[in-house]
Design goal:
This protein has about 350 residues and is α/β, with parallel strands linked by helices. The protein folds into two domains: about 230 residues, Aspartate Aminotransferase, domain 2, CATH 3.40.640.10; about 120 residues, Aspartate Aminotransferase, domain 1, CATH 3.90.1150.10. A seven-stranded mixed beta sheet has the order 1-7-6-5-4-2-3, with helices on both faces. A three-stranded antiparallel beta sheet has the order 8-9-10. Helix 2 packs parallel to helix 8, helix 3 packs parallel to helix 4 and helix 8 packs across helix 12. The structure holds pyridoxal-5'-phosphate. Pyridoxal-5'-phosphate (PLP) binds next to helix 3.
Length: about 350
């Protein structure tokens, strides 16, 4: 990224000079790297600033083209706010937002979804690929096939999935897919929206207007250093994906089993058979906030970063049937590329020690 911060300032839209063309080439190369990570074509990648923006473009940009008899949009009960909020805003434009429930593992209730599709003929179904808090992976291919059968478009918020599990837009048959560089060890402030058929697809209209950048779908001068960094991060993610998936799921399982050995009452949240490899979400029998405070050397959380600081228990935990009390006793433990076996070992020791101490004074 450095040369594009310090030496190469040219605008990639300026093709009349050598400097501009050099920036253009760097963007084009990064676009291929990003596309390859999800098995898309290069011209199907639209660069945005955040996945929040990608989700908004997909949800609002397709509503303009919705047929007059398709006024519903279906989403799940455990979506990120960058999906649920634009969906909610559509009610002001005469659309009907509808939410499909999830089961106790966080999986979308497929039977309920099919009934909604048949009853409401939605223009769009927007379901996340994987949940940030409990790691549950949705059967996106099955959902997309079903939604298409009923004539709906399919958008997928895959921010938690891309770079962590195999994501293949051809296999999944989605029409739109959002992901973000900073969730796969890339820079902040750069993200992408996959658009099936490319940015000029008639199924989607711009929500912002300006120059013709990104096929007119996301006008504005491109963030060249960010894009170059995103490309490099995507390439690395693709290279290390198989080994990291294995290493993280083994380390996570080992962590959970050694916790359960000492505290058999710990409950694991999420769909254990199909979960993000680095996700562990545990319900203890002591207050999670207290546990977290006593382990300041570990970056743990009780919910999502976006809702941090609120006193409300996680809506995701409530959607999978956890009580408020249980939600307050739940910790989200994320393992990543730089998490070592030693760190997990000392976390296990620390958690066990603090749980015993808190239990003793309760
Ligand atoms: C982080 C996250 C987002 C938002 O991504 P930004 O690039 O930070 O806007 C959306 N969806 C999910 C599931 C996320 O985890």
């Amino acid at each position: 990224m450095l040369p594009f911060f310090t030496e190469q300032f040219a605008n990639p839209a300026s093709s009349t000079h050598k400097e501009g063309r050099s920036s253009q080439q760097a963007v084009s190369f990064a676009r291929s790297q990003v596309a390859e990570l999800i098995n898309a074509a290069r011209d199907e990648i639209v660069f945005t600033s955040t996945a929040t923006e990608s989700n908004n473009i997909a949800i609002l940009g397709t509503s303009d083209n919705a047929a007059a008899n398709r006024r519903t949009v279906i989403t799940s009960a455990i979506e990120h706010k960058s999906v649920s909020e634009p969906v909610r805003s559509l009610s002001r434009r005469g659309f009907r937002p509808t939410t499909v429930d999830v089961d106790n593992y966080g999986r979308v209730k497929i039977g309920e979804l099919e009934a909604m599709l048949a009853q409401h003929s939605p223009y769009l179904v927007s379901i996340q690929a994987a949940n940030s808090e409990i790691g549950t992976i949705q059967p996106i291919r099955e959902i997309a096939e079903m939604a298409h059968f009923y004539g709906a478009l399919v958008h997928c918020d895959a921010v938690q999935a891309v770079g962590r599990i195999e994501v293949d837009v051809e296999e999944w048959e989605v029409d739109f897919l959002a992901f973000s560089a900073h969730k796969l060890y890339g820079p902040k402030g750069i993200a992408a929206l996959y658009v099936r058929g490319g940015s000029k697809s008639p199924r989607i209209s711009p929500v912002m207007f300006g120059g013709g950048h990104e096929g007119g779908l996301r006008p504005g001068t491109l963030n060249v250093p960010g894009i170059v960094g995103f490309g490099a991060a995507a390439q690395i993610a693709r290279e290390v994906l198989p080994s990291e998936m294995l290493r993280l799921s083994q380390l996570r399982d080992q962590f959970e089993l050694s916790m359960l050995e000492v505290h058999s009452t710990i409950q694991r949240n999420g769909f254990l058979l199909d979960r993000l490899p680095g996700n562990s979400n545990l319900t203890f029998s002591v207050d999670a906030e207290a546990l977290m405070m006593r382990l300041p050397h570990f970056a743990l959380s009780t919910g999502s970063a976006c809702s941090a600081g609120t006193l409300e228990p996680s809506p995701v935990l409530q959607a999978i049937g956890r009580s408020r009390e249980e939600a307050y006793m739940t910790l989200r433990i994320g393992l990543g590329r730089y998490t070592t076996e030693n760190e997990i070992h000392s976390l296990t020791t620390g958690l066990n020690r603090e749980i015993a101490l808190i239990s003793a004074i309760q």
